[in-house]
Amino acid sequence: MEKISVKAARLAEAIGKQVLVRGWIRTRRDSKGGFSFIELNDGSSFASLQIVADGSLSNYESEVKHLTAGSSIAVEGEVKASGGRGQATEVLATKLTLLGGADPETYPLQKKQHSLEKLREWAHLRPRTNTFGAVTRVRNCVSRSIHNFFQEDGFLYIHTPIITASDCEGAGAMFRVTTLDLEKLPRDGSKINHALDFFGKPAYLTVSGQLEGEIFACSLGKVYTFGPTFRAENSNTSRHLSEFWMVEPEVAFNELTDNMDLAEQFLKRIFKDALEQCPEDMAFFNEHYDKTTIETLQKIVVTDFRRLPYTEAVEILEKSGEKFEFPVKWGIDLQSEHERYLTEKHFQGPVILYDYPRTLKPFYMRVNDDDKTVRAMDVLVPKVGEIIGGSQREERLDVLTQRMGEQHLNPDDYWWYLDLRRFGTVPHAGFGLGLERAVQFITGMANIRDVIPFPRTPGSAEF
Amino acid sequence: MEKISVKAARLAEAIGKQVLVRGWIRTRRDSKGGFSFIELNDGSSFASLQIVADGSLSNYESEVKHLTAGSSIAVEGEVKASGGRGQATEVLATKLTLLGGADPETYPLQKKQHSLEKLREWAHLRPRTNTFGAVTRVRNCVSRSIHNFFQEDGFLYIHTPIITASDCEGAGAMFRVTTLDLEKLPRDGSKINHALDFFGKPAYLTVSGQLEGEIFACSLGKVYTFGPTFRAENSNTSRHLSEFWMVEPEVAFNELTDNMDLAEQFLKRIFKDALEQCPEDMAFFNEHYDKTTIETLQKIVVTDFRRLPYTEAVEILEKSGEKFEFPVKWGIDLQSEHERYLTEKHFQGPVILYDYPRTLKPFYMRVNDDDKTVRAMDVLVPKVGEIIGGSQREERLDVLTQRMGEQHLNPDDYWWYLDLRRFGTVPHAGFGLGLERAVQFITGMANIRDVIPFPRTPGSAEF
After folding, report:
1. Which of A136, A279, A356, B207 has the fewest CB atoms below 10 angstroms from its CB?
2. Does the predicted TM-score (pTM) go above 0.95?
3. CB B362 within 8 Å of CB B379
4. What gap in Å lies between CA B88 and CA B327, rounded to an integer?
5. Are residues A395 and B454, on separate chains, in Cβ contact within 8 Å?
6. Interface pTM (ipTM) of the complex?
């Protein structure tokens, strides 16, 4: 008796084997011939396994005929060739054991379709649905693909800190982390005495591992981070989370063109792996959530990403004749409508914009010889807009210090970051990809809260 | 001209190639014959690459002869066979460009040995040392090995939440996460109005992803988490961090024996990969930090872990004739001295203890038929003691509810956890491994602060 997954039992190779399969019942229907068909799912694949349970089972009348959706069972039997549509095999049960029932009066996931909003309230049960099983497998595939892409190329995975005492990262509003008793805050005169907090000063949740990633790139060459990051902004949109996972590669000796090459290869690899390794899940998303997602990904995988400077993009937008809500001129931050015009109408594919106005971008991006632009790059894709943001970093100590001055930052707060430019400085570049944005793009799910197990958003940190 | 890593240039296959290598200078020594040897490291391997730079370089007198440790350079030249000890190749430079100097008057990492304590203050530069380069590569190897082990076996990687509004996990003291202005706390009468905090109620940093992991195991079968976890305890020891990375597999239908099998295979795989994939780094640790580490790991990889019930372990300890600081009797929590006696003296190898007294363990561990013990397991290894803790989980709703009562927990706080037992409950089991403890064990590093990039401990959250 071989313990086997639903995925393995569905393969033609399994025919003839005596197996034990376990999982949760999706549906049961009884035939007039005195037997029942049970659809059994265990998460190993999108498709369920058909179990044929007949009257020869000792508990057929007493249990099998009363099995309900959501119940867990163990089935012993032989894998047989199946005449059913969409399945090569089925299991003819010789023994069926009910492990745990699910009262149809109270089990929330009944056969009727539930809204995605409603399922968020049942985040502890939604992985049992087709949609969230598929999201979980695709998200897993993308995560694995991210690690494989970098590991195969000799990158080192670095765990940059989650708690940071620098409130100077500047990428967004931060959450405070504290062990102070808020009802009895220690005071030094009239002010709170932060020296008595856990870390001896105020501490926050990180908004990016980039600066710490640069430390490792500037000593060990090729590195990447992949961990949670946080934004305390009060954004209630379908594209924002307060807690999300970010991937940030950083490479010594890379210049902006190398960075674009890396980002393009990286995205293509992730999309390709999702298409190849999750075909059933992707077919489901394509059918039920976004009829164009497979075609879009297939096209991106084989298309060279168009690369053009911000300045040229602005010219294209100005000449487009389109009526934009936000008028275009050199120096503005491009809006979603502009990005979508470029990727969906003008180029009909992914675009990498680079060399943005220095006033739009953070202090650490390398200043170009024109003194007006910096070596920033954004990768834009149809429907979603920006999916990757990155830059070549400023490796010249004097220019970096000057840029910090322009942005009213105190160099003392960045002493260690500046040290990287004092001692053996090197050109280097990197970028960031939000995992959830990538999974959203691949699956076509409209709301980012539906591509993370337990979304954290303003007012909500359930489960 | 091929861009090549130090690791690749050190291979005999590279001989004859025209290459470009870039990295940081470890040492330079000049020969009387009018040439210099430079040891170049780029993080791709423990060993450095020997560069031979001679008087034919146009900048030999002006620059090469003044190059200092920590400077970054780019070298073009041919890979030649080397007569030097411990190296198959060297590069004869035809062009050498200084990218960034490092003033020997101010560069902290001079040739003399620095203490590990001192290097913690220079955490932005310590990855440039032999020790922290090796730690980073081994840590990366272990992290990759963790993912590979689970992915190859069909586990799904789940990102359980970092911020949680349940203060009921019970595994340790928690950090509060807040956006309230501590100087102007909103009040509702005399009490702080937590409803105005970001998530509408008090929120904390997670101490474990287990309970959320169980949600996914109880719908998709085999899952694991791998992410940061937090402890707000004021522990200043060589084995505690306030922020560390934890791996937590959780498997539906697994019972305690399956859980032990999984833990044993898992540890062996990690140790084997470190030995096989980081031989130079491991040789370094074995020589400089722990003369027994390679031998210990090699032995563990081929030894069956001894498994015995807590009750038998107590009997062995009672009969041992050893004088323990903490006297042994049934019902006590085993101390480090007891664990070390078992692994180092009595069994001389790893031990899995199981079936602990119910009073010692959390509510979610499955109660045995004897009603006195629960299906807990701890994997103990020599020198370190407990490296893995886990259990079969209580899948029976009535027993679980009763256990919560014993431990004065409110079932309403765990409504979703109890739902997993209400609807299609299944036997399941899992365990947790602290990444840093594992890396500490493998490398033999004495202090856990030296196996994580930027340690967070009471009073310290630098970088």
Report:
1. A279
2. yes
3. no
4. 58
5. no
6. 0.97
